[in-house]
């Protein structure tokens, strides 16, 4: 099984002051106890690195990249690079949800989730549930 991991989930895991930190740690432990393939995009890597770098520190952001690369080398994580198919679908999604404040990264993420048939996303972003994707752990948890 696959699970998509969003920037907000990574940030909540790492920043002890984030309001979702405890929820994220619990959910992450449950995810890691299973055998799910963790899927994200190069856009998520960029967004996460930037957020960690400017809100926390260079070292925290660099450690995030190191852990991500180690997980990918073990086959536990797949980082999908945007391509024409994902970008075309992302543009359609952005048009379909133009009344929402989706970012381009959100559009690419939703395209990857749809095209790769990923049933769940680890996120605290309401946009995924609006698009009909099962979000774990959910905003209220």
Walk me through this protein's architecture:
- The protein is an alpha/beta fold.
- It has a single domain, classed as 5'-nuclease (Rossmann fold, 3-Layer(aba) Sandwich), CATH 3.40.50.
- It contains seven helices and five strands.
- The protein has helices at 7-14, 21-33, 42-55, 58-73, 84-96, 104-115, 126-130, and strands spanning 2-5, 37-41, 77-80, 120-123, 134-137.
- The chain has a five-stranded parallel β-sheet.
- The longest helix is centred in the middle third of the chain and has 16 residues, at 58-73.
- It is globular.
- The two termini are 22 Å apart.
| Spatial shape | globular
CATH superfamily membership: 5'-nuclease
Strand content: 5-15%
Order of helices and strands: EHHEHHEHHEHE
Largest sheet: 5 strands, parallel
CATH class: Alpha Beta
The number of helical runs is 7
CATH topology: Rossmann fold
Runs with pLDDT <50, length 5+? none
| Rg, Å, rounded | 14 Å
Strand order of the largest sheet: 3-2-1-4-5
Comma- or semicolon-separated keywords:
141 residues, alpha/beta, Rossmann fold, 5-stranded parallel sheet, 5 strands, 15% strand, globular
């Amino acid at each position: 099984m696959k699970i998509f991991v969003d920037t907000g989930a990574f940030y909540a895991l790492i920043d002890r002051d984030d309001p979702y930190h405890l929820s994220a740690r619990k959910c992450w432990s449950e995810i890691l106890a299973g055998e799910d393939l963790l899927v994200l995009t190069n856009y998520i890597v960029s967004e996460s690195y930037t957020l960690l770098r400017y809100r926390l520190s260079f070292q925290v952001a660099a450690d995030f990249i190191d852990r991500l690369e180690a997980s990918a080398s073990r086959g536990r994580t797949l980082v999908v690079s945007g391509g024409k198919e994902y970008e075309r679908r992302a543009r359609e999604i952005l048009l379909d949800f133009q009344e929402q404040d989706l970012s381009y990264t959100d559009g690419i993420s939703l395209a990857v989730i749809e095209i790769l048939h990923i049933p769940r996303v680890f996120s605290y972003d309401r946009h995924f549930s609006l698009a009909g994707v099962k979000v774990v752990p959910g905003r209220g948890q």
